[in-house]
Amino acid sequence: MRKRVDSVPKRNPDILDLDSDDDDSVSSSSTMRSDRMSLTDTEEVQKDKLLDQALDALFEKRGATREKALSAIIDAFNSELQHEFLEKKFATLLHQCITSLKKGSAREISLASHTIGLLAITVGCGDNAREIVEESVPVLAQDLKSRRGDPQKLSKLLECLAVITFVGGNDPAETEKAMEIMWQAVLPKSGSNVIAVKPSPAVISAMVSAWSFLLTSMDRWSLDPKKWQDSISYFSSLLEKEDRSVRIAAGEALALIFEMGSLEKFASDAGAVDGSNNGSDKTGGGMVHIHGLRAKVLNQVRNLSMEAGGKGSAKKDLNSQRNLFKDILEFLEDGSCPEMSIKIGGDTLTTTTWTQLVQLNYLKHFLGGGFVKHMQENELLHQIFGFTPKKNTGGAGHQMSSEEKRLFKSPNSIVNKARTQYLNKQRMLSEGKNTGRFSVNAGEDEI
Fold it and tell me: What's this model's pTM, rounded to 2 decimal places?
């Protein structure tokens, strides 16, 4: 099973003199109450001042200065949930990041994309999240449509689109539109006016992972089969690629589709998929094709779970692939989903479905060194995973910090809870179980 290691981002000593702020807030230990309470008012003011300086630097003409500023902002958002800063400067920061998307270098665009994603995760569902989607998606779509630029930039654009749509998407149609933008970035429609650029393995892997992440927020009934009828065949073809990251991303996507029970939906009009009968047979021949696809995928998964490796093959990567495809094989054969537990400070988060695992892997990868901090204090993530850190239970002797009190009183909290309840209700009505965005029942899975 794929595992991503949390890494603490190193501060760049020449970024806006931020080396003067050398607290340990990025590490998991720093998120404990004792460390927070040890900060003096002077240090807090200094941190706010550095953020203000970084925001001001985004107006500078020199691209390298803006890049350093964006790096500093990312570091700050990984270290702390900057709610107070965003209450005053949200619109300005978003506007400048979008300007960077339009006019910046490849590196600046990558940094701005990541910043916008962090912005969405920090503000949570609500009006600000909607504004991020409305202002950013057209720009992201245009950049992705060109398919030009280095793989790192395109991957960051895809990640940003996935995260902001996951948080701020209003309805299934909007989410599916974002998924289609991703798809076209790698597989443009024939005859479309785009430059014929072969996507790199890194971009393909990023697209499949982003697409899968958004798929977790959909239910099978809202998907348009005409758009995705060739997805199973495409993901199956990716299992044959040399790049291991591509195979892993495709394997997760297929496991997710099978878990949702969407094989028939994604392979509807099956004759049109393989061109055998121009879609004229949607019953008998179609079902034969569907069963054939499943058998093919099962065989591919079995082979990848036992792959011997090749020359220069990293043992760690090979083991990750074997473990993942062993889990997928067991799931396809007997329906057993892998269970994974991860330590978050002194708490444990456990996933028991592919939906949860895909969401966890994606957000863990996106947040990087900020993952532990956000999992401990970000209410949006608590609701997504049904995760309640012990420090938030308000037990005897617990003294809530000023930031915690403000978070619990935030209107955003009401919006998030209402949306969670609505989505869970809709999913239970449509499928009889939760398999979508907020797929864990907090009452059942609290640790």
Answer: 0.76
